[in-house]
Amino acid sequence: MKMNKAWHEKHPMPKNAGFEQRVKWHLEHQQHCSCRPIPAKLAEEMKKKGIKH
Description:
This protein is mainly alpha-helical. Helices cover 55% and strands 0% of the residues. It has three helices and no strands. It has helices spanning 5-10, 19-32, 40-48. It is globular.
């Protein structure tokens, strides 16, 4: 998996990010970088809430 270093430098995960912030960050991350998938626990919670990823 290739990391988009420039994207990561400009878009750090917010400190103490809540669920909505984490979802937003990971969905944007998926579009700009392929260094890792959405964490399983978060993906499971997104699925329960009907949020597509």
